Amino acid sequence: MSFLSATLDRVKPSPTIAVTTLAGELRAQGRDVIGLGAGEPDFDTPEHIREAAKAAIDAGKTRYTPVDGIPELKAAIRDKFLRDNDLDYPVADITVGTGGKQVLYNALVATLNPGDEVIIPAPYWVSYPDMVKLAGGEPVIVEGGLDAGYRITPEQLEAAITPRTKWLIFNSPSNPTGAGYDEAALRALTDVLERHPHVWVLTDDMYEHIAFPGFEFRTPAQVAPALKDRTLTVNGVSKAYAMTGWRIGYAGGPSELIKAMRKVQSQSTSNPCSVSQWAAVAALNGPQDYIPMSRDVFLRRRDLVVAGLNAAEGVTCPVPDGAFYVYPSIAGCIGKTTPAGKKIENDEDFATALLEDTGVAVVFGAAFGLSPNFRVSYATSDEVLEDACRRIQSFCAGLK
Ligand SMILES: Cc1ncc(COP(=O)(O)O)c(C=O)c1O
After folding, report:
1. Which of 150, 205, 206 to mutate to test the pocket of ligand 1 (most atoms within 8 A of CB)?
2. Which of 16, 98, 101 should be mutated for ligand 1, with most atoms under 8 A from CB?
3. What does the pLDDT profile of the chain (400 residues) look like in tens digits?
4. Ligand 1 center from residue 151 Cα (angstroms)
5. Which of 240, 256, 285, 358 registers the highest number of CB atoms within 10 A of its CB?
6. What domains appear along the chain, each with residue ranges and CATH number?
7. Residue 75: is it exposed, middle or buried by C-beta count within 10 angstroms (0-12/13-18/19+)?
8. Closest ligand 1 atom, CA of 204?
C-alpha cells in the first residue's frame, strides 16, 4: 500500500504552474522562450501599497493576527462590498485568507462530505475540480462551448442539479476564457437556483475589476438578493491591484459558513501574512486609479491578441469580456502535421509542438476542461505579444 493518501490519486498538479516551470527551464537552457502561461498582471504593485507594507513592518506589525484577518482589513472589505457590489456584509461575516485560493479551499473543506456534488462550468479555472476532490466531493462538469460564448445555459444548470448538489462554482469574467455573464445571463442562472434551495453559490469574483467596455460586472447575491444567505462571495487583491505574491483573498458569506471556514484556517495556516494584510488595507481604502489604468492596457492587448490569433490558420479566437486571457479554438489545426512530422491529435500535442518549434508557451485546453483550445495570458508587453502572435501564425501556416 502506498504511504501517500488515496485522495491524492484523484488529484493532478496544477498544469498552469507546470507550463510556467517548463518555460523557465527551457529559458535557463538558453532557449528563446515566450511564456504566455502565467496568470498574473505584469505590473508592479502600486507604490502607496508597497509603502503601507513598509510602514507596517517598521511599526512592528509583524506578529500573529486574528485567524481570519485584522479588523481594519475586514472594515475595508465591508466598505468595498458596499461600494462596488451593493452587498452589506457585517464584519463578522467576512473572512480573509492566504489568497482567494485558500478561501475557496476553506469553503469546500468546511462543507463537503463524501459524495457531495459541486457543479463546475467548463472551461474552468484548473484548481476547482481538484480542490473539490481534495475536499472529498465530486465535481460535476457542465460544458459551455465556443458557440455558447463559453457560458452555460439555465437549462444545463437545471439538468445538472441533483439532491446531492451542494454548490455551483461561478466565475465571471472567467479564467480561462474571459467570458462574462451580464445581468440578464446571470439572472437566468439565479432564477434556476432560487428554485433549488439546497444549492449554494460559490462565486469567484477575482476578475471583477478587469471588465471591458460593453460588459458590466455583476455578482450573484447582487442580482438575486434572495440567494445572499446561501452565497459565498469570494474576491481578492491579487488581480485587482497586481498583488499576486502578497497572498490576500477574502469572502463575505453567511455567519455559520464563515465561522466554519475560520475553524479550518485556525487548524491549518492561521492568519494570512500580517504585513500583506496592511498592504491590502491600503489597496482597498486608497486611491483606485491603478484599476482603470491596468484595464485600459489589458483592453489594448486583448484587441492585439484577438486580431493576431484570428490571423493564424485554423485558429478561432472570440473576444473576451474581461480578465486577461483568451481561449481560442484550434479545431482547424487538429489532424494536421508539423514540418518535423509530428501529428497534432489534440490540444496538448499542439501546445507541446508550439513550445518545441517556436518557443511560445501556452496552456492546452484539456487542462481547463474544454478542447481543442489553448489559453493565452496576455498580461505581458505588447512587443512580446506581437512576437508571440507572429510565431503562432507561422507555426499554424506550417501545419499540413
Ligand atoms: C479564477 C481564479 N480564482 C482564484 C485565483 C486565486 O487567486 P489568489 O489566490 O492569488 O487570490 C485565481 C488565480 O489565478 C484565478 O484565476
Report:
1. 206
2. 101
3. 689 998 888 887 777 777 777 888 888 999 999 999 888 899 999 999 999 999 999 999 999 999 999 999 999 999 999 999 999 999 999 999 999 999 999 999 999 999 999 999 999 999 999 999 999 999 999 999 999 999 999 999 999 999 999 999 999 999 999 999 999 999 999 999 999 999 999 999 999 999 999 999 999 999 999 999 999 999 999 999 999 999 999 999 999 999 999 999 999 999 999 999 999 999 999 999 999 999 999 999 999 999 999 999 999 999 999 999 999 999 999 999 999 999 999 999 999 999 989 999 999 999 999 999 999 999 999 999 999 999 999 999 999 9
4. 19
5. 240
6. 6-44+290-397 (3.90.1150.10), 64-285 (3.40.640.10)
7. middle
8. 3
Which helix (H) or strand (E) segment is 107 a member of? helix 99-111
Instruction: Look up residue 359 and give its three cell numbers.
Output: 518557443
Q: How far apart are CA 297 and CA 28, in angstroms?
A: 29
CA of 250 to the centre of ligand 1 (A): 11
3-state secondary structure of 212: coil
Measured distance CA(184)–CA(69) in Å, rounded: 35
Atom number of ligand 1 nearest to Cα 244 = 10
Residue 127 C-alpha to ligand 1 middle, in angstroms?
A: 9
Which residues fall within 8 angstroms of residue 394, CB to CB, at 6 or more apart? 358
Q: Using CA positions, which residue lies closest to atom 14 of ligand 1?
A: 39
Amino acid at 380: T
Query: Distance, CA 206 to ligand 1 centroid (Å)?
Result: 6
Residue 233, classed as helix, strand or coil, is: strand
The DSSP bridge pattern shows strands 117-122 and 165-171 to be parallel
Who lines ligand 1 at CB under 6 A?
39, 99-101, 125, 171, 175, 204, 206, 236, 238, 244, 249
Assign 95 to helix, strand or coil.
strand
Top mutation candidate among 238, 277, 375 for ligand 1, by most atoms within 8 Å of CB: 238
Question: What is each CA distance from 59 to 51, 53, 272, in whole angstroms?
Answer: 12, 10, 18
